[in-house]
Amino acid sequence: MRVAFLATGFPDYSVEAASALARRADVMLLGDRNQLARDSESCKRQAFAQSGRLRGFRQDKLPYRIMSCATVVSELVRFRPHAVIVHEHAHPHIAWIHRQIARLSRSLLIVHDPVPHAGRDGTLAVRNARCILEERAAASGFLVHGAYCARMLAQQGQIGERTILSIPHGPVLRPSLPAIQTYPQRALMFGRMEAYKGLELLLAAFRVIKERGIECELRLAGGGPALDPLKAEFLALGNCTIRSDFVPRDDAIAEFSNAGFVVAPYSEATQSGVVAAAFANGRPVIATAVGGLPDFVIHNRNGLLVPPHDPLALADAIQAIIEDRALLARLSAGAAASAAMEMSWDRFADIILDHIAGWDGLKG
Fold this sequence. Notes:
The chain has helices at residues 11-22, 33-39, 42-51, 62-79, 92-104, 120-127, 129-138, 147-154, 199-211, 231-236, 249-257, 273-280, 311-323, 325-340, 345-357; strands at residues 2-7, 26-32, 54-57, 83-87, 106-110, 141-144, 164-166, 186-190, 217-221, 240-243, 261-264, 285-288, 303-306. By secondary structure, it is an alpha/beta fold. The chain folds into 2 domains: 2-170 and 344-357, Rossmann fold (3-Layer(aba) Sandwich); 186-340, Rossmann fold. The strands form 2 sheets. Strands 3-2-1-4-5-6-7 form a 7-stranded parallel sheet, with helices on both faces. Strands 10-9-8-11-12-13 form a 6-stranded parallel sheet, with helices on both faces. Strand 4, helix 5 (92-104) and strand 5 (106-110) form a beta-alpha-beta unit. The termini are close together. The model has no long low-confidence stretch (mean pLDDT 93).
């Protein structure tokens, strides 16, 4: 079976997924070369390059986007895949590529966010709503991460009789060796700091933590418009450090390795690459019980769930994991087990390839 994986974004995810697929099928990886070089696991990426199954392109400027369209289509014509796996993006040149793929092969569209988040994601989605509609219209089937996302996508009314596969988000930002629990009292909030990420809730909870005299460090790693107006207030806590820029892959792994646990105080959520990265590093997650987070953060197994918009409940959960080292150890082991078992990339690949093999007329 020949499968093409088009990595127009999500580089670490794409390389991990394509590598797992390549253990069972003939896989070509086509991706943004700058993103792949900066933010994917080098050994797996080099394995594709050495096998002759890696094709790169650029998307950082308009002329390169036009060239990327020609590169992708020509490589797919040459490779003749039985199926192409593609990410959904609200960008015109990617929508054009999706329309061409529909003429060449069947495709499985990875929909990370069936409904756009508030903030910049929502603005981009509204501006390029036609692109999303075209990409979904061109797809033969859909892949989402979790039951919540599957329900949300089905409710959009654009799917018809096409299948929606629900598979857990695989572990990303995996360290080369298991991370030692060096800083158990450090909480990490990681990723793009957008309106829905719940920074106000986190600030309120850590004010409670400070009032209670609990020794807990807070690390914020990642930039975004929601952080800028609150940065001074976080720093005024006295136990908070901030890195407010883009965090490349190796630095991101270090951030997770140097944390005892991860906080996700979101006001809304679909799937979460941050949760997948936390579990990949054996770090439990304290999350609000919103959207798709409870699909993966299982209370008292690999993390703790708290009600949304409740700073006292969030502070209580942080205090519990700080003061009970046995709880932290048990949840950390549960996080690592989730990454290795139900979230494994091999399981991801098995489900996808079995689905593709069931498409009418496909010969392996």
